[in-house]
Amino acid sequence: MLHNLLKENGIISFIENQIMSTLAPWIVNSGGYMNSTLKVNESDFEKSKKIIDVYNNNNL
User: Fold this and answer.
1) Nearest-5° angle of CA 46, CA 48, CA 52?
2) CB atoms within 10 A of CB 40
3) pLDDT (tens digit, 9 = 90+) per residue, 35-53?
4) If we measure between CA atoms, which residue out of 26, 1, 25 comes closest to residue 15?
5) pTM, two decimal places
6) Could you please report the per-residue DSSP string of the chain?
7) Is 80 exceeded by the pLDDT of residue 33?
8) Residue of 13, 5, 8, 14 lying closest to 55 (CA atoms)
């Protein structure tokens, strides 16, 4: 969801270990072994963080 949200706001991102999380979700866990990680360009970090923070605050 966050990947699509950033894309809608013109920020290029990718999900590291996305394929693994689809093929073997029992191996991929939050913050653990082979976790999926959303990555953005360093120059887009602050803008991305603000967008994600607004999303998180509105969906609590």
Assistant:
1) 120
2) 19
3) 678 899 999 999 999 999 9
4) 1
5) 0.69
6) -HHHHHHHTT--EEEETHHHHHH-TTT--TTSTT--EEEE-GGGHHHHHHHHHHHHHHT-
7) no
8) 5
